[in-house]
Amino acid sequence: MLEYDFMRTAFLAALLVALVCGPVGWFLVLRGQTFASHALSHVGFAGATGALMFGLSPLTGLAGGALGAGILMGLAGERVAGRDVMIGLVLSVAMGVGALFLHLLTRSASAATALLFGDILGISPGMLGWLAALSAGCLLGLAVLARPLLFATLQPEMAEARGVRLQVLDVLFLALVAIATAECAQITGVLLVFTLMVAPAATVLRLSLPPLGGLAAAAGLALAEAWGGLILSWETDYPTSFWIALLGGAGFMLVGLVQRARGA
């Protein structure tokens, strides 16, 4: 399997993406903002298709669209929380705009499949360099924000009293989520971002590990699911995103069953 260049590139891409999605997803689930990655991926889809129309890399449009939406969501703060109808309409419009852009493209079928469901085996060495740069920047930003972000997540009133600017923190964190979402979409596609952004983190949080252990475990589990999906895809010829989604769901359910058995 590893004799092929495209497989080695796919494994490296999965490593870079998983190391970001696990820790970012851990904070995302802990803060109760899992809808954000779903929303940002849909808005990023419109940006990616728009970039394709102008001959640019879809990763550029996806990251730009998701980043802009993340910053706006952070600035809006509590005003968008709980407004399911507004969020649903924005997501629908974003997907509709993306569908229009795809309709105007001559290679819409292949582009739509890659954007919606991912194409990890089609990642080029040049794309791998961009993923490495985005992952390094995202992990560095998360390392800087981790302590105040955890404080603001667990004790927001006390954190604000101590001088932590909650809105600024929320904007910066959602910007990191946008970058992680753009990277994750290269592996799973915009429709299955939850599989790598949320499933590993939600599974690890059920184990009640301390913060550093939880962050490391989330990254490790995301990597295991991504690499496991690649291996199973090679053996079965089924899509990688399908196996990643199946492994994520199975891990979450398994931990729940074990906890329930121990409680009984």
TrEMBL record:
Q: Note the coiled coil stretches, chain numbering.
A: none
High-level lineage:
Bacteria, Pseudomonadati, Pseudomonadota, Alphaproteobacteria, Acetobacterales
Task: Report which superkingdom the organism of origin falls in.
Answer: Bacteria
By sequence similarity, the record places it as follows: Belongs to the ABC-3 integral membrane protein family.
The entry's localization annotation reads: Cell membrane; Membrane
Keywords from UniProt, A to Z, are: Membrane, Transmembrane, Transmembrane helix, Transport
**Listed Gene3D superfamilies:** ABC transporter involved in vitamin B12 uptake, BtuC
Is the keyword Transcription regulation in the record? no
Q: Which organism is it from?
A: Acetobacter farinalis
Membrane topology qualifier: Multi-pass membrane protein
The name of this protein is Metal ABC transporter permease
TM ranges: 49-73, 85-106, 126-151, 163-181, 187-205, 212-234, 240-258
